[in-house]
């Protein structure tokens, strides 16, 4: 507020006081490199003195930092993405930074467009939480600003940091748990062709083979196919299943209930991700927990370190198994015909 006029100062006030054009003020405030350093400093000092925008904003431009980061996600409706964002926000607050969120809504074209528009805000760095962002896009933006990816892109380019979950270890935990309960005919319901889902499927196959159960490896494409086999009493039907994620596990349990297949009495079900939904359905789902909030916080701290020293790193977090009611010891295991 301008104390002399009693109104909020405008860009025209700054231009008049600094003796420049309105367009030059706009360029200076945005940090446009075409504005000479001494001219920009004079304009920003004038903006600060008049109270144009906020003093912290003007001072941050003088320092060349906005103290803000952009977080780009696939879909804010996803519990996974919102948990990661909350972790980023927690760590950002600790570091005195603001967070601006872009939601791609599972549209690759929209994802890129939103990030381009958010770049105009002058963020200090970018956190990408998206399987839709390919290596070319990641590399392009990492060349412009410090950037950290949360998750497992197909091919992470040089110059980008990363925080990921050990998907292979997580699926190994699930398989070992079911084997310890006496199950041998353990199936897998796969997810998308994205790297995390592929790593989980490969780990299921490898772990089964390591435990001498390679002959029982079955990657079943749909929950309906699996439930139909169990409901029909097929001799080689699965007695347990490791799902690629919790949403698949929830869908499977719903179809099992509809078909009269008791979970976990006739079919033990393990999920992956530990979404809130996994604890809310009945039976509550045994699942692998990847610490999503901690992953978001690690990503922000890594970004802050990149801003300080320019070094990138790759961090992998360790998942844990959360035991609930959807898995139980094998009741009977009739011989395979």
Q: How many E strands?
A: 12
Residue runs with pLDDT of under 50 for 5 or more positions: none
Instruction: Determine the strand fraction and express it as a percent band.
Output: 15-25%
List the quaternary state of the chains.
single chain
Describe the structure.
With 337 residues, this protein is an alpha/beta fold. Helix content is 45%, strand content 16%. It has helices at residues 11-18, 22-30, 37-50, 55-63, 79-94, 108-119, 135-142, 167-180, 195-210, 223-231, 246-258, 276-280, 292-309; strands at 68-73, 98-103, 125-129, 147-150, 161-165, 186-189, 218-219, 240-243, 268-273, 286-289, 314-317, 320-322. The strands form two sheets. Strands 2-1-3-4-5-11 form a six-stranded parallel sheet, with helices on both faces. Helix 9 (195-210) links the parallel strand 6 and strand 7. Helix 5 crosses helix 13 (292-309). Pfam families: LacI, Peripla_BP_3. Keywords: DNA-binding, Repressor, Transcription, Transcription regulation. GO terms for molecular function: DNA-binding transcription factor activity; transcription cis-regulatory region binding.
Which terms would index this structure?
337 residues, alpha/beta, six-stranded parallel beta sheet, six-stranded mixed beta sheet, 12 strands, 45% helix, elongated, DNA-binding transcription factor activity
Secondary-structure topology with pairs:
Blueprint: H1 11-18, H2 22-30, H3 37-50, H4 55-63, E1 68-73, H5 79-94, E2 98-103, H6 108-119, E3 125-129, H7 135-142, E4 147-150, E5 161-165, H8 167-180, E6 186-189, H9 195-210, E7 218-219, H10 223-231, E8 240-243, H11 246-258, E9 268-273, H12 276-280, E10 286-289, H13 292-309, E11 314-317, E12 320-322
Parallel strand pairs: 1-2, 1-3, 3-4, 4-5, 5-11, 6-7, 6-8, 8-9, 9-10
Antiparallel strand pairs: 10-12
Helix pairs in contact: 1-2, 1-3, 3-4, 5-13, 8-9, 10-11
């Amino acid at each position: 507020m301008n104390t002399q006029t009693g109104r909020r100062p405008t860009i025209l006030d700054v231009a008049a006081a600094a003796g420049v054009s309105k367009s030059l003020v706009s360029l200076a405030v945005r940090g446009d490199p075409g504005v000479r350093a001494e001219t920009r400093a004079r304009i920003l000092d004038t903006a600060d003195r008049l109270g144009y925008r906020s003093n912290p904003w003007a001072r941050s431009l003088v320092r060349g930092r906005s103290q803000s980061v952009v977080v780009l996600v696939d879909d804010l409706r996803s519990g996974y993405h919102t948990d990661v964002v909350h972790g980023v926000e927690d760590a950002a607050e600790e570091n005195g930074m603001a967070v601006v969120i872009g939601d791609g809504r599972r549209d690759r074209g929209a994802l890129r467009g939103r990030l381009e528009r958010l770049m105009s805000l002058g963020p200090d760095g970018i956190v990408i939480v998206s399987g839709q962002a390919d290596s070319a896009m990641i590399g392009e933006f990492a060349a412009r600003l410090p950037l950290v990816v949360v998750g497992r892109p197909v091919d992470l380019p040089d110059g980008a940091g990363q925080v990921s979950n050990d998907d292979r270890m997580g699926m190994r935990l699930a398989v070992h748990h079911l084997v310890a309960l006496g199950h041998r005919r353990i199936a897998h319901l796969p997810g998308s062709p994205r790297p995390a889902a592929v790593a989980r499927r490969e780990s299921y196959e490898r772990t089964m083979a390591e435990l001498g159960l390679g002959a029982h490896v079955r990657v079943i494409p749909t929950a309906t196919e699996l439930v139909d086999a169990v409901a029909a009493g097929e001799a080689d039907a699965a007695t347990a299943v490791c799902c690629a994620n919790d949403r698949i596990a929830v869908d499977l349990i719903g179809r099992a209930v509809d078909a009269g297949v008791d979970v976990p009495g006739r079919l033990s079900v393990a999920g992956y991700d530990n979404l809130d939904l996994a604890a809310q359905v009945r039976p509550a789902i045994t699942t692998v927990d990847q610490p999503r909030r901690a992953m978001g916080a690690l990503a922000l701290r890594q970004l802050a370190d990149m801003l300080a020293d320019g070094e990138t790193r790759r961090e992998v977090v360790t998942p844990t198994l959360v035991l609930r009611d959807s898995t139980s010891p094998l009741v009977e295991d009739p011989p395979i015909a």
